[in-house]
Design goal:
CATH superfamily of the largest domain: P-loop containing nucleotide triphosphate hydrolases
CATH class of the largest domain: Alpha Beta
Strand order of the largest sheet: 5-6-7-3-8-9
Strand content: 15-25%
Structural class: alpha/beta
Helix content: 40-55%
């Protein structure tokens, strides 16, 4: 059993409460998914549980962690800088972990995870691995450590579909308590049996959390039904109150009229009317008190508001005719040939195992298109730092500095649920989801009609992700993407290509 009590989290820079009076008990077999919008404190909670020093620079956290002797296996959302400089072998063999585990067990776990054993003993730097390979190696290390509690922050990010299916089985089959943050709705639907929902309401001035002992789809369904019911009850109470107050006002006006016209020769009648008015006023005060206890419209954290402005490409316009033979990274041949033709409103998705070269291919496509003058192209890389100055604020990143543009940018940021404080933070201080939103806003502001998207939905919450998928589905330009998000592939892509050492083929 794992337990935390009375946890409070305050964001220091914004002086904003992210979590208040939060207590949780996790037992064997619990698979607790932490959901909520970007920047609501989900990652901070997991970091604090694992190691308080990870959050001390930006958050004040109080609370009690029981069972302190338990070993936590923690997967961070981003690989720590100090680990990125290590070789794969040195990262995995800290404290002789590989030796202590035993080579036979190491090989068994590697096969289970579809992990090449050559990579395990590699002198390749962790930073040089693909995004999915980094996650795989970290999950592999956690498996070797055999922790008592699993704390996983976006474990599905960048994983290929085979490994995603392994991850789901691993979460389902372990007896250890699992607490994980995920925006992947498929993982949530297939694995979670408890939901922890962290919300920010009233323009992020009020926090709320909900713990539900049900699966994800059941939680979403029950929540929607509950909100509809509460809204109907609140509307009914409001209608009844309006009718009651209308009757009250008529009585008050009648007594007031009679009191103003009572004859001076009828003091007894005047006294009776004053008593009647006093009773009416007392009734009005009672109604006011009852109104304070009326059922109110439920507060709900809303999804982002986003759409692409009028974008259109002719369907028969040739966007890309790429032919690479052979397809290589340095001296390593990835496959014999890549041939890809893309037209005006095509929505292409490229899939394949981690390390197969998908991101390398996307970079090559970007290089071949970025100087074209007949299209407007933008690229959302897997590593945001490749094309984003992390020292800028969101406003500085998106605006050209003019007053008109700055006003427009701030309006757009507000629709994406940024507070005024967050609009002026450095990008490096924002969550991955908040950073991802900036790419989409930039594409819109630049009126791009060709989008290159490497894992576009990986950091969006389960509330925002459907919005992004719908917007991309309705986009009247061209999309070339890499994704392992099964809902994205199903709902957005009209053509899927598989990249492997066997070739580049349409699925």
């Amino acid at each position: 059993m794992f337990q935390i009590k009375n946890v409070n989290i305050e964001h220091i820079q914004d002086n904003r409460i992210l979590l208040k009076d939060f207590s949780l008990v996790l037992n064997e077999g619990d698979k607790a998914a932490v959901i909520g919008e970007e920047g609501n404190g989900k990652s901070t909670l997991l970091k604090w549980i694992h190691d308080e020093d990870l959050v001390s620079s930006y958050a004040n956290v109080t609370g009690v962690k029981l069972n302190l002797n338990q070993k936590t296996g923690y997967l961070p959302q981003q690989l720590p800088v100090e680990d990125g400089a290590k070789t794969v072998l040195s990262f995995l063999n800290e404290n002789d972990l590989l030796v202590e585990t035993g080579w036979e067990m190491v090989d068994d776990i590697a096969r289970e995870m579809y992990l090449d054993t050559d990579l395990i003993y590699s002198e390749q730097k962790m930073n040089d691995l693909s995004g999915g390979e980094k996650i795989k190696i970290q999950l592999f290390k956690i498996r070797l450590q055999d922790p008592d509690v699993l704390l996983l922050d976006e474990p599905g990010n960048d994983l290929d579909i085979e490994t995603l299916e392994w991850l789901e089985k691993m979460i389902l089959n372990t007896n250890h308590p699992v607490m994980f943050v995920s925006h992947d709705e498929t993982i949530l639907e297939r694995t979670a049996n408890r939901i922890i929902h962290i919300e920010q309401l009233k323009k992020k001035q009020e926090c709320r959390h909900t713990i539900a002992n049900v699966g994800y789809r059941t939680y979403v369904s029950q929540r929607d039904v509950s909100f509809v019911k509460q809204a109907q009850q609140a509307a009914s109470d409001k209608r009844e109150d309006a009718k009651r107050m209308e009757r009250y006002r008529r009585i008050e006006q009648k007594v007031s009229h009679e009191l103003n016209h009572v004859s001076r020769q009828d003091p007894h009648g005047g006294q009776l009317l004053k008593k009647k008015m006093k009773a009416v006023k007392s009734l009005g005060k009672r109604f006011d008190r009852e109104r304070e206890n009326m059922r109110r419209m439920p507060e709900k954290e809303e999804a982002i508001l986003f759409f692409f402005e009028d974008i259109y490409l002719p369907k028969d316009k040739m966007i890309l005719d790429l032919h690479i033979s052979p397809f290589m990274i340095g001296e390593k041949k990835l496959c014999e040939e890549v041939h890809l033709q893309v037209y005006g409103q095509d929505k292409i998705c490229i899939i394949g195992r981690n390390g197969s070269g998908k991101t390398t291919l996307m970079k090559e496509i970007y290089r071949s298109l970025k100087d074209r003058e007949d299209i407007r192209i933008d690229y959302m890389p897997q590593n945001y730092r490749d094309l984003m100055n992390m020292e800028l604020s969101p406003v500085e990143f998106l605006s050209d500095g003019t007053r008109e543009m700055t006003t427009k940018v701030m309006t757009y940021l507000g629709a994406m649920k940024y507070t005024s404080d967050e609009m002026n933070h450095k990008i490096r201080d924002l969550s991955g989801g908040q950073q991802a939103k900036l790419f989409f806003l930039k594409m819109n502001l630049d009126r791009c009609n060709v989008l290159l998207l490497d894992e576009p939905t990986r950091n969006f919450s389960s509330l925002s992700s459907p919005v992004i998928r719908n917007v991309l589905q309705e986009f009247h330009g061209c999309i070339i993407s890499v994704s392992h998000d099964r809902k994205y592939i199903e709902e957005v892509a009209d053509t899927v290509y598989v990249l492997s050492d066997a070739g580049f083929v349409k699925r």
